[in-house]
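FAQ: What does a multi-protein file look like?

Like this. Sequence, then tokens, then the next protein.
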Amino acid sequence: MNDIKFLDSYQCAKLLEVIVNLKHKLIVLLMLDCGLRVSEAISLKYEDFDFKRDLVIVKTLKKRGKVVRRKIPLSKRLYQCLAEYFSKQKNIEKDDFLFPYQFSNKYHITRDAVNKFLKTYNKKLGFKFINPHSLRHAFGTRHIAEGTPLENIKTMMGHERYDTTLIYTQIPTELLKQNISRVSDKQESKLNKILRRLGIKVVDDKKISLNFHKDIFTIGRNLEIKQLEENANKGVNTIITGGIGVGKSHLLESFQTDKKILKIDDLSGLKGTIKDLLIFLYNGDKKHVKDLIYGDIDHDKMLLKLNRTSTKNLCDEMKKIVENKEYILSIDRVDNITPGGVQFLEEVKDTFIIFCSARVVKLDKSSFMWNYDRLVLKTLDRAKSFELINKLSYDLNPEDYDLFRNHIFEQSNGNPRVIFEVIDRYRKEPIITNEVIREVRHTASLQEIDMTFVIFIGFGMMYLLRYMSKEVDNDSFRFIGGVALVLTLLSRQLLGFTKRKFL
């Protein structure tokens, strides 16, 4: 170790000054500011970065095939270099290499490529010992000089000689960030500190908005979830209605209950669906019932018998093997329910607790809902929309967060699905500038306008023209009024098209 050359602070600064190639500079900074081995730096993938916490997660293969992961904070200058590098990339995927091989994205660049460009800078600067290990060694020696605890340096560098216990030692990330900042970042001037306190932006720092981790949660539906849980406990059948994207399916997935749930995506292929439910029950909770009914008959013969059984008899068999209200039958999307589906739900509505969802249900097919409780989902209000936006975008770093939130709310009108989709669209942008924020559009949530009242007013005014024609003695008024009279007489049929046909 004593024979290894390293760069001092002046030499590091000179090296970074002469590097023009952005990729070269980024590789050097990964070794210089994070202490990475060259093999670790060139094999990094986009998913190895946690930009919300300003960390790079490095995977190292140890002896006996064990993979060790260590988290190293990013210096400000490395973060900004990454931001600039990402802004020049296209179609970023989480498992893409940060430095792909020129002729294939399936491989990363080689260490020989790194040694080659470092030799070029060796000759240009005359330092004679610029190599990957000298950069990594500079990281360690500079931290020791700055008083970084030895245990912290061991953790960040991941030396092989450290035992397993020390490798897994938990060191607060914030402390490591302070060490990184003290060693790598320039001190802010007093003028800049004063301007920053006054709320004046003094440095145009880029922010990276890439993250490949998602959470499952529910916002703005607490009352509805509570109602579903109460209905499940009481055995009350329930239908959830609402426009596209308001979260009906999500609500069916989110409530908690001790009841056992049987899930059906829809009621198309009804007989096959009922048969699959029976097989599921026979192979699970009701296996003892299958043994009583079918005895030693093999599985294929049982399937053949079920295939030949009518839908009505399949329903009867299913009702016999379960206790009343033992299961919740969760059915997503009953919008286009068939007469057979209506008959099925009417058959089992007293045997199962039925939870279903639909945008609309035709009135002539709503007979199965006569004993149902109804939950109507609407779009979120502004406060809940902002809460959802904050939750979904916690890991994004837009240039102007207030502009970002307001733009998403204006695009979504409080529709949760649109909020999800717009934010997901922003995730495809490594750098979210104000221009990028304004460019993103979503038209699926535009509100419908009911023109019935306007049509009535228009007909009424034309109808009045017929009587005005006598006062002003104008035949054209009389003709227009006559047309209005005909339309008025036909209004029952015309307005029949606007008659409510759906629940």
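And here is the next protein:
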Amino acid sequence: MGWRNDPARTAPVVVDVREPWEFAHCRIDGAISMPLSQLPARLAELPATQDVILVCHHGSRSQQAALFLARNGFPRVFNLRGGVEAWALEVDPAMPRY
């Protein structure tokens, strides 16, 4: 994610919608743990004016979360295609996989 380190852009908020045990096993540095089931109750914790990147294991749950946020006033949401599995394979090979 090049834009995470781009000083010309506000850093995105990375929200991991996996379950706590999954987040404890591996995660992208700086990600916020917010399980998909808690997302509706925790919307106020997310900045609607900032880029929000949603992450899960393979990308399905985070896609559901992205659609939910988009329908609820978050115009700048992105799904990390392939989830932490793809991140481990393409960006951080030292990340534990499951």
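Q: Is there any per-entry metadata?
A: Some entries carry free-text notes. For the entry above: Residues 40 and 68 are 8 Å apart (CA to CA).
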